[in-house]
């Protein structure tokens, strides 16, 4: 009987864990037309810390993630360059409904966990933002991709690559009229636990994204 109870307990735990993982979301193809010229985009770029409550559409998110670090060539290379083309930066997406990882090769949001975890990067954790963004993008570098011989420079390369992805986000938001700000302030330990990150995966930066507050 005790063995049966143990098996039932494990089944309940496994079922609960499975239920907490949201479904993957297939994103539509990014819309590569429209927006401002590159010179106007650079002229208008600025940091926004106030966000409207209006939600981003799935098309908005598709365009945003592709611009940030999507695949832009048949050989699998990205919109953001990376050191030795190691493609070490993953984008994790926090919404009111759950946390996801952007799979650039499939252009899919891979479900990680349900629930609203935006507080890990929001104003409750940092005084730099005064309203909760509809979407939070967390840029995580997997330093193991640089190999054991690059251990002394891995963090520097990972931070540089995350900065390039963040700049793509900043320019996209400027060109399309969204609000964002690049930040290092976040609950790193909380994010690692929530997102199930390994020791080699380091949250480097985050970009809250939304519509400008009216």
Biggest sheet strand line-up: 1-4-3-2-5-7-6
The low-confidence runs, each spanning 5 or more residues with pLDDT under 50, are 4-18, 124-129
Provide a count of the helices. Answer: 5
Rg, Cα atoms, Å: 18 Å
Briefly summarize what is shown.
The chain is of the alpha+beta class.
Describe the secondary-structure layout:
Blueprint: H1 2-19, E1 25-26, H2 38-44, H3 58-69, E2 89-94, E3 98-103, E4 108-114, E5 135-142, H4 151-176, E6 179-180, H5 188-195, E7 201-210
Antiparallel strand pairs: 1-4, 2-3, 2-5, 3-4, 5-7, 6-7
Helix pairs in contact: 2-4, 3-4
Structural summary, described in words:
The protein has 214 residues and is of the alpha+beta class. It contains five helices and seven strands; from the N terminus they run αβααββββαβαβ. The protein has helices spanning 2-19, 38-44, 58-69, 151-176, 188-195, and strands at residues 25-26, 89-94, 98-103, 108-114, 135-142, 179-180, 201-210. Strands 1-4-3-2-5-7-6 form a seven-stranded antiparallel beta sheet. A hairpin with a 3-residue loop joins strand 2 (89-94) and strand 3. Helix 2 crosses helix 4 (151-176) and helix 3 (58-69) packs across helix 4 (151-176).
């Amino acid at each position: 009987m005790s063995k049966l109870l143990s098996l039932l307990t494990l089944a309940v735990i496994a079922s609960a864990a499975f239920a907490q993982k949201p479904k993957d979301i297939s994103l539509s193809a990014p819309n590569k037309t429209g927006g401002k010229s590159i010179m106007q985009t650079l002229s208008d770029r600025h940091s926004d810390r106030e966000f409207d409550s209006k939600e981003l559409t799935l098309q908005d998110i598709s365009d945003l993630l592709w611009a940030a670090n999507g695949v832009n060539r048949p050989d699998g290379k990205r919109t953001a360059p990376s050191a030795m083309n190691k493609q070490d930066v993953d984008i994790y997406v926090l919404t009111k409904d759950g946390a996801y990882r952007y799979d650039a090769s499939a252009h899919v949001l891979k479900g990680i966990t349900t629930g609203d975890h935006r507080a890990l990067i929001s104003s409750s954790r940092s005084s730099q933002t005064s309203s909760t963004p509809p979407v939070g993008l967390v840029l995580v570098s997997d330093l193991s991709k640089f190999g054991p011989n690059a251990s002394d420079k891995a963090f520097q390369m990972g931070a540089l690559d995350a900065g390039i992805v963040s700049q793509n986000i900043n320019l996209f938001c400027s060109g399309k009229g969204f609000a964002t700000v690049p930040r290092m302030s976040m609950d790193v330990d909380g994010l690692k636990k929530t997102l199930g990150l390994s020791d080699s995966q380091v949250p480097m930066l985050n970009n809250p994204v939304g519509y400008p507050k009216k």
